[in-house]
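[step 3/7] fold_predict: job queued, chain A
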Amino acid sequence: MSGIPLSDPIPYVLSNEACEEALNELTSMQDLLRWGISRMNEANLYFGHGTDNARDDAVMLVTHALHLPWDIDHAWQSSKLTRSERQCVIELFARRINERMPTPYLTGEAWFYGLPFIVDERVLIPRSPIAEIIAARFQPWLGDKPVHRILDLCTGSGCIGIACAAEFPQAHVELLDISFEALTLADENISRHQMNDRVIALQSDLFSAADGQYDIIVSNPPYVDSDDMSCLPEEFHNEPELALAAGEDGLDLVRIMLAEARQYLSDDGIFIVEVGNSWPTLEDAYPTVPFMWQEFEMGGHGVFVLTADQLDECVEALKLK
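[step 4/7] structure written:
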């Protein structure tokens, strides 16, 4: 995740009476889209789990409830709905507002790197800007070097590793995570994208299950510090805390990863990690390490790249203290 917004101190509740009124008086898809957008804006929801506004969130919920593609032609919005269809739509809006449940958990799907992924409350919802780096084939750091093995550390849903496998069809990819529940879902996504022959999910405490060396090690680990955890919007509290919280300064896992990554990285390999809002703290903690911070066209921040050579040069600075 990138960016930590402030929480809403006064929760809004969508009443049963308001839902019943909508059910009885609204008839078309357009009616329900407008109503849902108005109610979500009134509730001051946080949008940051695949969309950044109420309209896009509403489209996702309505089309999911009606078993339609999210990019359906606008002409369909005038279509009238049956009472049971309206009921399904309204129930989704009520959960989105009253439970502050992120939309991808309600639809069971999130998009990353242009691919759909199964998601639920076992995993963090995919939203890392690392997708842009994958789509750019890790250039310019990778050059024309062949990629044989890729490691996705703290994989969650498996979205980063599976996207890497899609971008590098000759590579074998390992997805490591400490959460057995997350790995079960990652396996579902591996099967969904028919990559069982090249992608494997393994339970691992950071690098403990890693074997040998990898051309690319990439990770979106937990990195939220204690102050930010205390003021997250309610939507984030529906995600697993294990995938977010990383100690007082947000660097509990990243410190270990920096100390151990080189032994699992090939001599011309690259190491990519997202640390989000914790990037200034990381810079202060390692002032001599030449983190290469990335800029993103689609938004996001706090992702660094280090080469194997740079890790070698900084071996003393990166030792655990």
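[step 5/7] annotate
The beta strands are 109-112, 115-118, 149-153, 172-177, 199-203, 214-219, 265-274, 292-293, 303-307.
The first strand starts at residue 109 and ends at 112.
exit 0
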